[in-house]
Design a protein that fits this description.
With about 240 residues, this protein is an alpha+beta fold. It has helices at about 15-30, 40-45, 85-100, 110-115, 125-145, 150-170, 175-185, 210-225; strands spanning about 50-55, 60-65, 70-75, 190-195, 200-210, 235. A hairpin with a 4-residue loop joins β1 (about 50-55) and β2 (about 60-65). It is globular and about 50 Å long.
Length: about 240
């Protein structure tokens, strides 16, 4: 029922998750992208000035404030598409690894369990699983850093996350690696990593607010110098979700 101004009331949490599942099903079954639920949940559960911790095993969402820093996105100029075979192959390797480790998903696997079962996996299955399992641990530690107001430590987890994507998941590109490397050379950058499914696209950077302008100038200048391509960094703001 609409309010007197014609506005719809906020969706209850259970309904938001229901809509997120429906949207994921549309991408999986109609578009043909074997994606998870990250984008859909982010769109519906977003909270201004907060990052989200999404647990895909229990489908729960928690938020933690990240106030006082700039969030800057740098587009590598490399177009990516998740309908292509690379993303689907990553998912198949992760699902196969979980099955061989007798787990419903890699969300239920700890690093010790993965190392013990390494001999049962192909080298590629192990690499993909290693990234996922270590990334889950990083998310837990990163949330703790945020709650302790330690943004520099949070940024270090972003750098580590990118390194794991590059070395284990192998969904980075030369251009994305260049952007992260350049970001790390600027004194105002606290952290940087590729964002989305990889294989192109953009990086996300956590930058000290008072050095945001200097950072963007540095990235535009150095990226063009190294690659010959222009990049126009964009300052972003975390806002409330659509619900």
């Amino acid at each position: 029922m609409r309010a007197y101004k014609g506005e719809l009331p906020p969706l209850p949490l259970i309904e938001r998750m229901h809509y997120a599942k429906l949207c994921r099903a549309a991408e999986n079954e109609f578009v043909g992208v074997p994606c998870g639920i990250l984008d859909q949940v982010s769109s519906l559960f977003g909270k201004a000035w907060n990052v989200m911790n999404i647990d895909c095993r229990f489908l729960t969402v928690e938020t933690a404030p990240i106030i006082g820093e700039a969030i800057i996105v740098c587009d590598s100029g490399v177009k990516h598409t998740l309908v292509g075979g690379e993303y689907a192959e990553l998912r198949r390797n992760c699902e196969s690894a979980a099955q061989k480790l007798h787990a419903k998903s890699l969300r239920s696997v700890e690093m010790k369990h993965l190392q013990t079962g390494k001999s049962f996996l192909t080298p590629r299955e192990f690499e993909c699983a290693h990234h996922v399992v270590s990334e889950i641990a990083r998310v837990v530690a990163a949330e703790r850093a945020l709650r302790n107001d330690d943004h520099r430590q949070f940024g270090q987890f972003m750098f580590q996350s990118h390194e794991s994507s590059r070395d284990f998941l192998k969904n980075s590109t030369v251009e994305l690696d260049t952007l992260v490397e350049l970001a790390g050379k600027h004194p105002g950058c606290l952290g940087a990593r590729l964002t989305g499914g990889g294989f192109g696209g953009a990086t996300i950077n956590l930058v000290a607010y008072h050095q945001a302008e200097s950072f963007m100038e540095h990235m535009a200048r150095e990226y063009e110098s190294q690659t010959g391509h222009k990049v126009k960094p964009v300052v972003c703001q975390v806002v409330d979700g659509a619900a």
